[in-house]
């Protein structure tokens, strides 16, 4: 690492520790020639994730767009901002850990809806109505009927207890 004071090309690491929740490494260094100390940060280089929109255009993945959509869907619902951010984090991590560097917006929307369905059904329907852009009332009712037909978690637990 080049010294910012004298420009010498080498330095020694005095101290290393994680920073920003482990996302970066903070290193205290000392120049071998002038012996002045300075700090550097080491960050994992991630490949950019590109989202392919419905119209075929491409743009870089933006976690805040997921959060904004979820905030609108969860308005006046008992869903905390921490839960919303958790969904956005889970989706972002799953996409980053995937092999593909390009992903369709429909895949992202489905990932968000899967998580939202378990969290709050009203928010799920709101998100789905915007995301799937229902053309008419019958397509909206079809989605609602799928949601209503899904067995309740409490009913599933009771059924499995009755079987034992």
Task: Describe the overall structure.
The chain is α+β, with helices and mostly antiparallel strands and 164 residues long. It is built from six helices and six strands; from the N terminus they run βββββααβαααα. The chain has helices at 63-73, 81-97, 105-119, 121-131, 137-149, 153-163, and strands spanning 11-19, 24-31, 37-43, 50-52, 58-60, 102-104. The strands form two sheets. A three-stranded antiparallel sheet has the order 1-2-3, with no helix packed on it. It has a three-stranded mixed sheet with strand order 5-4-6. It is elongated, with a radius of gyration of 24 Å. The mean pLDDT is 84.
Strand order of the largest sheet: 1-2-3
The oligomeric state of the chains shown is: single chain
**Overall strand count:** 6
Helix content: 40-55%
The amount of beta strand, in percent, is 15-25%
Gross morphology is: elongated
What string, H for helix and E for strand, traces the elements in order?
EEEEEHHEHHHH
Mean pLDDT score, rounded?
A: 84
The assigned structural class equals: alpha+beta
Gyration radius (Cα, Å) is 24 Å
Note the main sheet.
3 strands, antiparallel
The helix tally amounts to: 6
Residue windows where pLDDT falls under 50 for at least 5 positions: none
How far is the first residue's CA from the last residue's CA? 66 Å
Question: Which features characterize this protein?
Answer:
164 residues; alpha+beta; 6 helices; elongated
